[in-house]
Specification:
Layout lengths: L11 H8 L7 E4 L3 E2 L6 E6 L2 E4 L3 E9 L9 E8 L2 E8 L2 E4 L2 E4 L3 E7 L5 E2 L16 E4 L1 E3 L2 E12 L11 E7 L4 E7 L6 E2 L16 E5 L4 E9 L3 E3 L2 E3 L4 E8 L6 E5 L1 E2 L13 E3 L2 E7 L2 E5 L4 H5 L3 H10 L1 H5 E10 L4 E10 L21 E3 L9 E8 L8 E9 L4 E5 L4 E5 L2 E3 L4 E19 L19 E6 L15 E18 L1
Length: 514
């Protein structure tokens, strides 16, 4: 059969790159869950088979940032599950545009929490005073804080899962410093009370005017950081002089304090674009994969279409100060990596700006929070799903912004897809451990998936051919594959094999041997 590229999500250059690897190269996948987010496992797509990018579904407004210290420009959210509690950290900031003038407030690091990731509350922490009262959810102030020059407006907070982390440093954060320019390391025993880990920035080469983050990468046994950079930029007198395009730089560390192996993030098949944030973190269900949701930034300029977008009068006021404030547009992208440096970036939008309404189609609409969490489905009896959160109504004429929740099925970023007319996916040689093959898939009532296990050279193995596999149909995140002789594949564990998925009107999101 003919190998084809897909129009929307699998460009010819990337398809050729994935088929160029010699068949003797065997990927040892053990018993880990594998997704199709980067095409690394794909050898051939046949018929009308393709890799298809999926988009999350908009749900309710999760948080309205309507308190005076939160303002209309709350952003740079960090969201993670911590046992039975969901935690959220974000910037509180007010920005007001009037003809020819922009006024801004001080920055605050704020905190919210939830028992389900859907309904959020802002506890009165009583830590810091705002206009004569400590009845607020502020955990850090901008300015001189713990002896350092902290800019609480660009936070990235995480729980450190490094088993060697000290109890007093169980929660960590990167906080920007303006002078000296760089990223400060902060730590906390409880996620509420914070202190600086060093009087000086631990990373100083960059622009940092974005959400700059770091995390413990358990799959690789190290900390990894990602921060705002400009290709060709330089630092002069503690001021970054941007040149080129907004880009992302990364480095690694064993102790969170000393960083090395700096690299610019690169992409296998994507042209240079302005990326405002990165939002990268290991995917909890498949931690060998680093997933990112960067914000694509486009300066469109004035046109009839720009004038037809929502909130034209506000847009014109902003553009009268700096044109890009009123005419730049943003949307969320999706990318994935196995080494933390080279990413497969899907060039189509992961979340489009959506139907036009007030508070949308502006800059920086759809700034996605860092990172994914699992939440209950609204459908009784349905499995858990993924929730992610994105900003709306940023910097508008009101005194608040909102954070909207989006949902996606577990592993549901990219699927191997075939229409009713049929298609196939053949993997590169893999070596697995386990006794059963489990799939996360969706079919129509008339569609289905059949699985064939081949040897390394592509010869079907007796008992595991397509003819031996009754069509699998349904919509589930976990179904064990069976052949006429049963589902036990343990005799093949440790051997080099290929998987052939024969599909019609179906989507395959992930597979796992266990």
């Amino acid at each position: 059969m003919k190998i084809i590229p897909t129009a929307r999500v699998f460009c010819l250059a990337f398809a050729l790159a994935t088929t160029a690897i010699a068949s003797s190269d065997v990927m040892d996948i053990g018993s880990r869950r594998e997704l199709f987010v980067d095409g690394a496992l794909v050898d051939q797509l046949r018929g009308r088979g393709e890799l298809r990018l999926h988009s999350p579904v908009a749900q309710e407004v999760a948080v309205t940032h309507d308190q005076a210290w939160e303002g209309n420009a709350s952003a740079y959210h960090s969201i993670f599950q911590d046992g039975d509690l969901y935690r959220m950290y974000y910037r509180g900031w007010q920005i007001d545009f009037t003809p020819g003038k922009v006024r801004t407030s001080n920055n605050f690091l704020c905190y919210a929490e939830s028992n389900d990731g859907i309904h959020w509350r802002k506890p009165e922490l009583g830590l810091h005073e705002f206009k004569g009262s400590k009845a607020n959810n502020i955990v850090m102030l901008s300015g001189t804080f713990q002896g350092v020059n902290a800019d609480a407006g660009h936070p990235a907070v995480f729980k450190d899962d490094n088993p060697a982390a000290k109890p007093a440093e169980r929660y960590k954060a990167f906080i920007r410093s303006k002078k000296p320019l760089g990223l400060l390391a902060f730590a906390s025993p409880d996620g509420i009370h914070w202190s600086a880990m060093s009087p000086a920035p631990v990373i100083s080469d960059g622009a940092f005017d974005s959400q700059n983050l770091a995390f413990w990468d358990a799959a690789r046994g190290e900390y990894r950081a990602y921060w705002r950079y400009f290709t060709g930029g330089t630092v002069t007198n503690d001021e970054w002089k941007p040149q080129g395009v907004r880009s992302i730089r990364t480095a690694t560390s064993k102790d969170f304090m000393h960083w090395s192996h700096q690299n610019d993030v690169s992409y296998v098949d994507s042209a240079p674009e302005q990326l405002y944030t990165n939002v990268i973190k290991p995917y909890a269900r498949a931690p060998q994969l680093l997933l990112g949701f960067p914000l694509r930034y486009i300066e469109q300029g004035w046109s009839d279409s720009m004038r037809a977008l929502p909130d034209r009068s506000e847009r014109e006021i902003k553009a009268g100060i700096v044109e890009r404030y009123g005419t730049a547009l943003c949307e969320s992208l999706f990318m994935a990596s196995r080494d933390g440096v080279t990413f497969k970036r899907w060039n189509e939008a992961f979340i489009r700006p959506g139907i036009e309404r007030s508070g949308t189609w502006n800059y920086p609409h759809l700034l996605v929070g860092w990172h994914l969490v699992e939440t209950k489905s609204a459908l009784t009896g349905a499995p858990d799903e993924l929730s992610l959160y994105a900003v709306e109504s940023y910097g508008g004429g009101g005194n608040h912004s909102v954070l909207r929740r989006y949902t996606l099925r577990l592993d549901g970023f990219v699927s191997a897809h075939a229409p009713m007319s049929g298609g196939e996916l053949l993997t590169k040689p893999v070596r697995f451990q386990g006794a059963r093959l489990h799939l996360n898939f969706s079919t129509s009532a008339a569609g289905g998936i059949q699985v064939e296990i081949q040897d390394e050279k592509g010869n079907p193995l007796p008992g595991f051919t397509v003819a031996d596999c009754p069509p699998i149909f349904g919509d589930t995140i976990d179904r064990a594959v069976t052949w006429k002789g049963g589902g036990d594949v343990s005799a093949l564990a440790g051997k080099s094999v290929r998987l052939r998925f024969v599909m019609k009107d179906s989507d395959l999101f992930s597979f796992q041997f266990r």
